[in-house]
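Q: Here's a chain of 103 amino acids. Please give me its 3D structure as tokens.
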Amino acid sequence: MFDAGAMGKRIRLLRKQMNLTQEELAAQVGVSLSFMGHIERGTRQPSLDHLVRLSEKLGVSADFLLTGREMISITREQAHMLWDVAHNLGLTLEGLNMDEEEK
């Protein structure tokens, strides 16, 4: 379930790590200072366009802002290697979709 408050906290943390003020980030994203404050408090949500701009300015994926999880891309060879290691350790990998033929 989406948590606007948690997203706002992630945005605030990333903004502060980049030494940006709310006003600076708001200007870069194209929203008002007031609206940026609402986003960081979780009382309002950015549009899809503003979410994409926020993710670009903060250097993270929109998925990370929304969920706190970063999606990564790996090659098929890396996926096989990860699957083999996990399998040998008796672990499963969430989000690694490989059919039996690929394993």
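Q: Can you summarize the key feature?
A: Residues 4-17 form the longest helix (14 residues).
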